[in-house]
Amino acid sequence: METERLILRTARCGDEKDLMEIRNSEYVLKYNCMSKLTAEHLQEQVEKDMKSDDTFYIELKDNHKIIGMIGIEADSLRYGVNSLCLSYYLGEEYSSKGYMTEALREIIRYAFEEKHVDVISVRVFKDNMASRRLVEKLGFTNEGCIRRCVKGYGDIIHDDMIFSILKEEYGMSGCNAAPLPAQFS
Q1: N or C: the chain end with fewer CB closer than 10 Å?
Q2: Which pTM does this prediction carry?
């Protein structure tokens, strides 16, 4: 998949070079339920991602550098509902430039229009204000907070905010609109 500035694609051999610094950075680990990976484990992860239809590496069109990742998985909080949950991260130097907004718009379009899901959810640690603003800007509704829900990196226990967007809200939310210029994202 492509957007104005990005390519969203499956993993390839060699991606671990770009991904290692981003994936293991304090910036990314702070708000994700992950631990640091060794080079060997990251290589295994990339090989696993190469076989996945639901893991998208975010690549800049202009220099083909990997700047982040988006994962699509079953929504573990819903039962018997055609729903998916998104997870994502982006390297610190690429944040606040509209890249994740642009990438998630395309993934949301893909999930609703090609995978035909009825609900997309996102879980965001309560203190991750940037991610909360991002999903709200994309039209997601705050469904509530599960207090002391996730033990994250550094053994910090986070409250977990739950957001969702319904298929019928998708056209009204601006998710399927053209990407915003970076200065407005």
Answers
A1: N
A2: 0.88
